[in-house]
């Protein structure tokens, strides 16, 4: 099979390419299954959520805290929500400057209505001295042409 590889970001899958994509997916699942692997990284959150939805036993955690979840997918967040009781809560912390995959996620896409969000403007991760050292290092000539580097 020969299909142009253009990636998915910002593109819609045309109707004529869907059979080719489905064929590729089927082959991938076959290879994965034959190698003894039931899941891949992207599947795990979906399977966890499905298990929680079928499990009627009481949830063990009333509140879940996620620190460093800036690269979580909507499905990962849905799986965490399924792990808490209906009257439970989830605190989610993420730093978009530390995103690895560059995917922005909306709470709505995760199926959540968030009553309020807080944005920290102060550095709470390290001491003032460490932050000053990091800023001094970032101003060195080695880092000049890095567009993702925010200097304050």
UniProtKB/TrEMBL annotation:
Protein's UniProt keywords contain ATP-binding: yes
Keywords assigned by UniProt, alphabetized: ATP-binding, Helicase, Hydrolase, Nucleotide-binding
Keyword set includes ATP-binding: yes
A cellular component term, taken from the record's GO annotations: cytosol
Lineage: superkingdom: Bacteria
InterPro entries assigned to the protein according to its UniProt record, in alphabetical order: DNA_helicase_UvrD/REP, P-loop_NTPase, UvrD-like_ATP-bd
SUPFAM superfamilies, alphabetized: P-loop containing nucleoside triphosphate hydrolases (SSF52540)
GO BP terms in the entry: recombinational repair
Any one Gene Ontology molecular-function term assigned to this protein's record: ATP binding
Residue intervals of the UvrD-like helicase ATP-binding domain: 16-106
Signal peptide: none
Protein name in the entry: UvrD-like helicase ATP-binding domain-containing protein
Gene source species: Desulfosarcina ovata subsp. sediminis
């Amino acid at each position: 099979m020969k299909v142009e590889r253009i990636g998915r970001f910002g593109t819609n899958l045309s109707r004529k390419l869907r059979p080719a994509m489905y064929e590729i997916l089927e082959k991938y699942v076959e290879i994965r299954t034959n190698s003894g692997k039931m899941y891949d990284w992207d599947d795990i959150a979906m399977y966890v959520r499905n298990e929680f939805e079928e499990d009627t036993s009481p949830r063990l955690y009333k509140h879940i805290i996620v620190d460093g979840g800036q690269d979580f997918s909507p499905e990962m967040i849905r799986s965490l929500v399924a792990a808490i009781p209906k009257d439970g809560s989830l605190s989610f912390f993420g730093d978009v400057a530390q995103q690895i995959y560059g995917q922005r996620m909306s709470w709505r896409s995760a199926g959540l209505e968030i009553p309020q969000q807080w944005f920290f403007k102060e550095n709470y991760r390290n001491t003032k001295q460490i932050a000053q050292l990091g800023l001094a290092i970032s101003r060195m000539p080695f880092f000049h042409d890095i567009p993702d580097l925010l200097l304050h």
